[in-house]
Design goal:
338 residues; alpha+beta; eight-stranded antiparallel sheet; 6 helices; 16 strands
Length: 338
């Protein structure tokens, strides 16, 4: 079995919110509907091996007690064998069952022997938070596998249309598996990707989706996201326009602090010290100016990249300005450096 993958720099689940609900077929806000058939869905708190995924693919979409499916690390499993009603049972053996219910039963149809079809805007969701997912090894080790057997109603759905989502609304999520027309992708919340996971952790680009049945597995561990689709390798998007900004921020911020901020402290000290004999006030003014400039840059980058504020950047950046101001004072022979 082939896979497509790439590494995400500096990513973990330390900023996940375990209180989010878990849902299928929509966002919790009911404004990102996905229409289609789901035959099986499973969540693991570890990275499935390629051999395990190949075994699952060969086993097919019908789950039975004798199915050759991995059970280690299985924290949620839905086989849709109920055949009627509004309740969908979590058949995993780990923790308290994370059962789901259909928001509007008139907008779904049961498929025998297993499966459910969503043909109108509704949602299949947990009654409350899906804390059990994050209380597993998922958040402890920042590892995840999401598996689904599905077939979309059409290949024009976008948003992305939410197939599986552990999220609160369109702006706040832990992870989302979604459809964007003929492509499939994963949004994943990390300190680098931001609270909405705007950096697409894994996204196909070769239009592999059809209205037929697909076996999709995405795994994540040690900063590596991997996509398996019907046992075939597909091109994936490692970064889009926003991601280039994110990767620049991750890889270039140390150089940026020194190249951009050092001159600020050096020049502002020279300006503030013209009519002041003491070096204390110019040093203070220079540091405040540097912090103000850096805070402005930080706010702009937070908006563009959709990430949390980097307190370390502010502290170290201010320190760089302070050191450059001291260098300026030394250069102007206003302090004794012996």
């Amino acid at each position: 079995m082939n896979a497509s993958s790439f590494s995400i720099l500096g990513s973990d689940f330390s900023n996940w919110d375990p209180a989010f609900p878990f849902q299928l077929g929509n966002e919790a806000s009911l404004d990102r509907p996905w229409l289609g058939k789901i035959y099986l869905a499973a969540i693991y708190d570890r990275v499935l091996s390629s051999e395990e995924i190949d075994s699952h693919y060969r086993a097919g979409a019908l789950y039975t007690a004798s199915s050759k499916r991995a059970r280690d690390g299985l924290v949620a499993l839905y086989s849709f064998t109920e055949g009627k009603g509004e309740a969908i049972r979590d058949q995993s053996a780990w923790g308290s069952p994370l059962d789901l219910s259909v928001h509007d039963p008139d907008k779904i149809a049961w498929i025998r022997p297993n499966g459910i079809e969503i043909f109108d805007n509704t949602i299949i969701r947990s009654a409350g938070s899906a804390e059990k997912l994050c209380h597993s090894d998922m958040c402890l080790h920042s590892t995840l596998s999401v598996e689904v057997w599905m077939s979309p109603t059409n290949i024009e759905q976008r948003g992305p249309a939410r197939i599986i989502s552990y999220s609160k609304n369109p702006a706040l999520r832990n992870f989302t598996l979604g459809q964007e027309k003929r492509n499939i992708g994963l949004r994943l919340r990390t300190p680098l990707a931001g609270l909405n996971g705007m950096q697409r952790a894994l996204w196909t680009t070769d239009d592999p989706l059809t209205t037929g049945m697909h076996h999709i597995v995405v795994t994540y561990g040690k900063g590596i996201a991997t996509l398996y689709l019907n046992g075939e390798s597909h091109e994936v998007l490692a970064s889009d326009g926003r991601d280039h900004l994110t990767l620049f921020y991750s890889n270039g911020k140390w150089a940026f602090w020194f190249v951009a901020l050092f001159p600020i402290g050096f020049l502002t000290y020279m300006i503030f010290s013209r009519n002041v004999r003491s070096m204390t006030k110019p040093l203070m003014f220079s540091s405040v100016t540097g912090l103000t400039v850096l805070a402005g840059i930080e706010l702009v980058s937070m908006f563009l990249v959709s990430r949390e504020i980097d307190v370390l950047l502010l502290l170290v950046g201010t320190g760089v300005v302070f050191l450059s101001a001291l260098t300026s004072a030394t250069f102007n022979e206003q302090i004794d450096v012996r």
